[in-house]
Design a protein that fits this description.
Layout lengths: L11 E9 L2 E2 L4 E4 L5 E3 L5 E7 L2 E8 L6 E7 L4 E6 L9 E2 L7 E2 L8 E3 L1 H5 L6 H4 L6 E5 L7 E5 L7 E5 L2 E4 L2 H5 L9 E8 L3 H4 L6 E7 L8 E8 L4 E11 L3 E12 L15 E13 L7 E15 L15 E16 L5 E17 L2 E20 L2 E16 L8 E15 L4 E12 L3 E15 L2 E12 L3 H4 L9 E4 L6 E15 L5 E14 L12 E4 L4 E15 L4 E16 L2 E4 L6 E11 L4 E10 L20 E13 L2 E8 L58 E10 L1
Parallel strand pairs: 1-8, 14-17, 31-34
Antiparallel strand pairs: 1-2, 1-5, 3-4, 3-6, 6-7, 9-10, 11-16, 12-13, 14-15, 16-17, 18-19, 18-42, 19-20, 20-21, 21-22, 22-23, 23-24, 24-25, 25-26, 26-27, 27-28, 28-29, 29-30, 30-32, 32-33, 33-35, 35-36, 36-37, 36-38, 38-39, 39-40, 40-41, 41-42
Keywords: Cell outer membrane, Membrane, Receptor, TonB box, Transmembrane, Transmembrane beta strand, Transport
InterPro entries: Beta-barrel_TonB, Beta-barrel_TonB_sf, CarboxyPept-like_regulatory, Plug_dom, Plug_dom_sf, TonB-dep_rcpt-like
Family: Belongs to the TonB-dependent receptor family.
Length: 741
């Protein structure tokens, strides 16, 4: 605020100093709000802003990674002096819940948990969580089909079914919705995303074998009264998030949000007569209630409805061709709803009852092959949180009901199972430097019997700035084949299930080291490195190699492993600059009959980075983000297939500018995929036999093998599973965000 009490004859200077923990903070930004006047502190933390007329001023001091501080100063008839003492805004002190099922500081958790906030999501705006995870180190969104563009999330090189996705800690995103449901969570409603790499089955049961992702939504009381976020891209994509919160009576607060996404452009830049990106019409409506209760006991209820109509295929396709064999298209209607809640019982002890229910209905066709499926998951658990001296105990019992049915030959009758569970966890705090977490879970599956999954986690903190964590545990996974393996539904390959599939089991050990480094000039760095080894028995991996015209599923008669190293550096520099970089090296392979084979569609190394620059005077922020993936083995259709056996090293890079100098409004614009990279580069084609998607002109011999002909010299069948990255090239985007607090 600047008053009109000024004189034209005299101007004065505002001088001062910026400190942190009593030490000078170099290169901090000091500026006067609503003007273009400002300065940067020198190496002694000193600044000076000249030529100020007398009046009242609101002065702000900021430094990337520190909490912004504002003060009011009155300039009268002489130079004025002001000082600031900034506090670190340390993301490592964020409260997390995923690693241990209870709220703790990241620094105190014996389980390494990575946290990604809305600031991370804003660096590269996306219409869904699936795409937003592309800049998380060791996490890769994998597309599984060139036609319908469905996908899953890989953690440390493991396939999507090994990753459990939670919403507010509830395991309602699995099976069918792991493939399709990740697109329906409005990004504007997300408080933070927590990622745990490595088995977490001792707390979360089946599917948390490779790791888990917990999407935590905003609390109504912490949300703006109204918010809107909309953007469009040069490809014609439109994304809109809208929401509001309201007080209902004296004891209830409700948060309502909706996401709408639409893309209806026929784009075929690789000239194969197939859509490069599926056409989509999607809406998701979310509602969350918080209730005030005596003694601040918790009661929250949330619900979401999701509907999507997506299709991809030949450019001539429309809905009159749905399910026929004249024009090829893959059309998917998805209807889904969820409810979830958390109720703290009115007891002297801290006991919570958490529950969720989801109903997922999918009506889809892949060419002339229908896939009609329903999945219903009910989940409830009681958790007793009890502290006794140095022991922080957690007792729990859970019951999970899963109903699944489809029209495939693999599901003769509906698969219906109820799985009871018991788990216990004890975190022992020996002293300020050392703690030990012991956990054990018991599940009973009527199909497979008793299942035990123990784990141990040790934390050693030699100094306030160094943490060493050693985690070990087991995991298990019960397979629902068609809900998890989209390749089994699309294309012309025959699906062969050789035997009754048994649960997979895993054994994992992870060593993590984290260090914080503070420099005298105010810069600080966070180094986070991990090494892991996971051993699988009974692994179920699709076999594309034995017969190129078949996908063979069976339990591996041998073992598979995932091992590797990851390294992250977060850096806060002066002058509004913040950067992060991460790299992962991994070896994921299987051994059977003394043959050692690299896992298909798994990169050996990857990297991610982000660079942000904030200019406080102009209210502009520049973000540069990117990722890089090393070669991965791809699913070829035989020795004559002319496509590359390994993908090249490839990278997606993005740049964005954001202006937030207007009240409650942000304007952002940028370029996605700056290098214009697409997977068709260097390949004669991506989709095999795109000109004959129903294999009407393919000839087979008596053994079912394809015969090379003049029309089909490479002996191929129609197959869109040769995919390892997005088909979208370079494109502009423009958007606006509005928040009314």
């Amino acid at each position: 605020m600047i008053c009109a009490n000024t004189t034209a004859q005299s101007t004065f200077s505002l001088k001062g100093k910026v400190l942190s923990n009593g030490k000078p903070l170099s290169y901090a930004n000091v500026y006067i709000e609503n003007t273009d006047k400002g300065a940067t502190t020198n190496e002694n933390g000193v600044f000076s802003i000249p030529n100020l007329a007398p009046g009242n001023y609101s002065v702000a001091a900021s430094f990337t990674g520190y909490t912004l501080q504002k003060k009011t100063v009155i300039i009268k008839a002489k130079d004025s002096y002001i000082s600031f003492n900034l506090n670190e805004d340390d993301a490592l002190d964020e409260v997390i819940i995923t690693g241990t099922l209870k709220a703790v500081s990241r620094l105190e958790s014996p389980v390494p948990v990575e946290v990604y906030t809305p600031t991370f999501l804003k660096k590269n705006p996306t219409p869904n969580i699936f795409e937003a995870l592309q800049n998380v180190n060791g996490v890769r969104p994998q597309l599984n089909c060139n036609v319908c563009n469905t996908g899953d999330i890989h953690i440390n090189g493991l396939e999507g079914p090994y990753t459990l996705v939670l919403i507010d800690g509830m395991p309602i995103v699995s099976g069918l919705s792991t493939v399709y449901g990740l697109s329906g969570i409005p990004n504007s409603l997300i408080e933070q995303i927590e990622v745990v790499k490595g088995p977490a089955s001792s707390l979360y049961g089946s599917e948390a074998v490779g790791g888990l992702i917990n999407v935590i939504t905003k609390l109504p009381e912490n949300s703006p009264r109204f918010f809107a976020d909309a953007f469009v891209t040069g490809w014609g994509e439109t994304n809109l998030d809208l929401g509001f919160k309201a007080q209902v009576g004296k004891k209830a607060t409700v948060l309502v949000g909706t996401n709408y996404f639409k893309f209806d452009e026929l784009i075929d830049n690789n000239n194969d007569n197939f859509t490069d990106l599926t056409l989509q019409d999607r809406i998701s409506i979310f509602q969350k209630w918080d209730f005030k209760r005596a003694s601040n006991r918790k009661l929250s209820l949330a619900g979401r409805y999701f509907y999507e109509d997506r299709w991809g295929g030949e450019l001539q396709w429309n809905k009159t061709y749905r399910g026929g064999d004249a024009i090829y298209g893959e059309s998917i209607y998805t209807s889904r709803f969820e409810i979830l809640g958390d109720y703290e019982l009115p007891l002297s002890e801290k006991v919570n009852f958490q529950f969720s229910y989801s109903d997922h209905d999918q009506n889809s066709v892949y060419g002339n092959t229908p896939y009609l499926a329903q999945q219903r998951i009910g989940f409830g658990q009681l958790i007793w949180d009890k502290k006794i001296d140095k022991h922080d105990l957690l007792f729990g019992t859970a019951l999970r009901y899963n109903y699944y049915n489809d029209n495939t030959t693999a599901t003769i009758s509906a698969d219906e199972v109820t799985m009871p569970s018991l788990f216990i966890q004890d975190e022992i705090a020996f002293n300020k430097k050392q703690s030990l977490l012991l956990g054990m879970r018991y599940d009973y599956d009527s199909r497979h019997g008793n299942i035990f999954t123990p784990r141990i986690a040790y934390r050693y903190k030699p100094t306030d700035n160094d943490i060493i964590r050693l985690n070990a545990g087991t995991g298990f996974r019960v397979v629902n084949l068609f809900t998890e393996e989209h390749a089994a539904l699309t294309g012309a390959r025959d699906v062969i299930i050789k035997e009754t599939l048994q649960p997979e089991e895993s054994y994992n050990i992870t060593l993590n080291y984290l260090k914080k480094l503070y420099l005298d000039n105010g810069m600080y760095f966070t180094f986070d490195t991990s090494a892991w080894y996971t051993y699988f028995t009974n692994a179920i991996l699709p076999d594309y190699d034995t017969n190129p015209n078949k996908i063979i599923y069976s339990n591996l008669d041998g073992y598979s492993t995932s091992k590797g190293l990851s390294f992250n550096v977060d850096a806060v520099f002066g002058s509004g600059i913040k950067a992060s970089i991460g790299a992962t090296y991994q070896d994921v392979s299987q051994t059977e009959n003394d043959q050692h084979i690299k896992q298909i569609l798994t990169e050996q190394y990857s990297g991610v980075w982000s660079l942000s620059y904030r200019n406080y005077k102009t209210n502009l922020t520049l973000d540069y983000t990117g990722n890089l993936y090393g070669p991965m083995r791809l699913p070829l259709l035989g020795d004559l297939d002319p496509r590359q056996e390994y993908s090249p090293t490839w990278s997606i890079q993005n740049i964005q500018a954001t202006y937030d100098g207007l009240d409650n409004l942000e304007i952002y614009a940028g370029v996605k995929n700056l290098l214009n990279w697409t997977p068709n580069k260097g390949n004669p084609f991506i989709i095999a036999r795109a000109d004959d998607p129903f294999d009407k002109n393919v000839q087979f011999n008596g053994d079912g093998d394809v015969i090379p002909t003049t029309d089909n010299p490479y002996a191929l069948t129609f197959d869109p599973s040769y995919v390892y990255g997005p088909n979208q090239g370079v494109r502009l985007f423009f958007g606006m965000r509005y928040n009314l607090n």
